[in-house]
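Sample pair:
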Amino acid sequence: MTPVLRTERLEFIPYRAEDEDVFVALLRDAEVCRWMGQDRAPEADIRKLFRLILSDVYPRHMFDVWGLWVDGAFAGHAELKKTGNVDGHELITALAPEFWGRGLGPEAGRRLLRYAADDLGLKEVYGMVGAENSTSLRACERLGFRHVRDVVADDGTVTRMLVVSTTEPT
């Protein structure tokens, strides 16, 4: 079962049915999609994805996924799940633009890495960050991530595959 996690400022809370609209708004935001390296999906597809989290991901314990909250306001999304890119787990975070620039990304990353090590027993965690997303790349570097390789999409966009050991302090 996906646990509630906390940091000094963030609450990681498993999604509830009433969170659907904020989840959809985040994943429909053009800037969020740009920095996540994905196209804006139709609203109906995102709503279907959200409902699958509640009806399939949580009940089957497929992976951990949370809404991120700051003082009761929805601030973003986080996941820790097996990745298809390599044999390992990937850390994913996406913050709403109004929460950018506050150091919440690294704060979320540190907490997820501690959870990965302490609760899941993972020795390393991967991340995928767009090569143009210098802010997220710097945050990952501060967390101890190192570059593994570049992944080039059919359209020529480049995503950096990163890895970090969970046994080293961040």
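The first strand starts at residue 5 and ends at 6.
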